[in-house]
Amino acid sequence: MEGVGVTIAFWVLAALTLIAAGGVMVSRNLLHAVLFLIVTFIGIAGFFVLLSAAFLAMAQIIIYVGAIAVLILFAILLTPRAGRGNSETKFALPATLLAISLAAVFLFVIHDTDWEVVQEDPSLAANQLGEALVGTWVVPFEIASVLLTAALVGAIMLVRTPEEEAEDALA
Amino acid sequence: MSVDIEHFLTVGALLFAVGLMVALSKRNAIGVLMGVELMLNAVNLTLISFSRFSVSERPITGHTFVVFVLTVAAAEAAVALALAVSVYRNRDTIDVDQINLLKS
Hints:
The complex is a heterodimer. Chain A is mostly helical. Chain A folds into 2 domains: 1-78, NADH-ubiquinone/plastoquinone oxidoreductase chain 6, subunit NuoJ (Four Helix Bundle (Hemerythrin (Met), subunit A)), CATH 1.20.120; 126-171. Helix content of chain A is 75%, strand content 0%. Chain A has 7 helices and no strands. In chain A, helix 1 (4-26) runs antiparallel to helix 2 and helix 2 (30-50) runs antiparallel to helix 3. By secondary structure, chain B is an all-alpha fold. Chain B has a single domain, classed as Helix Hairpins (Orthogonal Bundle). Chain B has helices at 5-25, 29-53, 60-91. The longest helix of chain B has 32 residues, at 60-91. Chain B is elongated and about 55 Å long. Chain B starts with a helix and ends in a 13-residue tail after the last helix. In chain B, 55% of the residues are buried. At the A-B interface, helix 1, helix 2, helix 3, helix 4 and helix 5 of A face helix 1, helix 2 and helix 3 of B.
């Protein structure tokens, strides 16, 4: 991908995304962590636009920023005594070492491989995605709908209070 | 100056490593979930990069996979956060070091 604009956009987005991800790591207060997480999601959406996946960038904003981040915020506000002063577990050092070594392996593979790439944009439109979803991938698509229904019912069942369960038992 | 597939894959790999670090080292169950979401996002970025750059008959397959990852991430977040709220009601904590009822 040539062009000054693309290059600037890439480096700005990379810095934004990775710094925000680091912010999630270092924040002791979960509310700050979720705000950094939202910045990371928006940065990823920017990358999707840069990679000409405009529909998925929109879906990323709607689902991650609009749904999952708000869900996490709700969960943090519903667990008020647990949101602050979260120090790391005793696994912090091994986890850091594992992450660094994993990143080293990934970076070695990425930079050592001679990627066979196309330079011109394959120009994938949303209608092609729709045709693929209900054509080739129709069975996983239907299974995903079943999964969403199961998750919906499961989430409702899990957060019921004992009083509500007692009411349902009487009814 | 040009941006190639290596650049995007590097960002994806670093984001995955940060997500792994968050998921393994946070004490709070919701923090662990945030790490998982970061890792899923890194995977999505990698899939889209391959879909854009790789020589393939049907590059749209990468986009399709991302749609499924988004779906599963939403379902997983809903159930995991419901579990966290439920555990908090019973135990008054969601510290993953304290939730050890099954430990002998």
